[in-house]
Amino acid sequence: MSSLLRFTKSIGIIASVCIVLVLIFFLTWQLFGAESGRRFVIRNLLSGDFAGEPEFAKEMAIDLIFLIQQTVLFCIGAIFVASAAWLSFANFVPVTRPGEARNWVWVWFAILISGAVASGVIPSIMFLMETDLLRADQIMPSVFLSIIIYAIIFFVFGSLLATPAHMRTAVPLATKFKKGA
Q1: pLDDT for 67-91, tens place per residue?
Q2: In 3-state terms, the chain is what percent helix, strand and coil (to 5)?
Q3: SS (H, E, C) 44-70
Q4: Per-residue pLDDT reduced to its tens digit, 91-127
Q5: Residue 165 has what DSSP assignment?
Q6: C-alpha distances in angstroms, 122 versus 41, 62, 151?
Q7: Alpha carbon 10 to its chain's center
Q8: Quick one: which of 33, 42, 165, 173 has the most CB atoms within 10 Å?
Q9: Distance of alpha carbon 131 from alpha carbon 123, whole angstroms
Q10: First and final CA of the chain: distance in angstroms?
Q11: Which pLDDT belongs to residue 83?
Q12: Model's pTM, two decimal places?
């Protein structure tokens, strides 16, 4: 029963972080305003093929904004799924002696890499295969940004803060950070 309770607490942490990320994303969009956001998208992100005529550019910018919002939500979903996979493993694998969790570091790395690949594939599919609205020079930075954000959130929230104490040695650098805190 304690494993289930630990798991619920761990999932609660990462779910809260994902909800806060979604709220920050949408509140930021609302605070800066949809009209200024559309102008930003037309000026900086919309492919030159669509930016010529103002009315057409506005319609295409709205489509691109919707696509960007979907992509961000899918990437946050990938963060949650990867973190939930690690936390499921970390909470339910029996560890009977000190240091035994180090044997499972490969699982942590496998989940980290799988999530990073998913976080890179999501914007690639959305921006390369689904549409040609995004400027070509903005696709790779969006992929790299997605991977970096995933890695930071997975490491800090999905691993350092949510991993149960008995599995902390399976997370690289976790014991060093926790000793310093």
Answers
A1: 888 999 999 999 999 999 999 998 8
A2: 85, 0, 15
A3: HHECCCCCCCHHHHHHHHHHHHHHHHH
A4: 888 888 877 888 888 999 999 999 999 999 999 998 8
A5: G
A6: 20, 20, 15
A7: 17
A8: 42
A9: 11
A10: 29
A11: 92
A12: 0.85
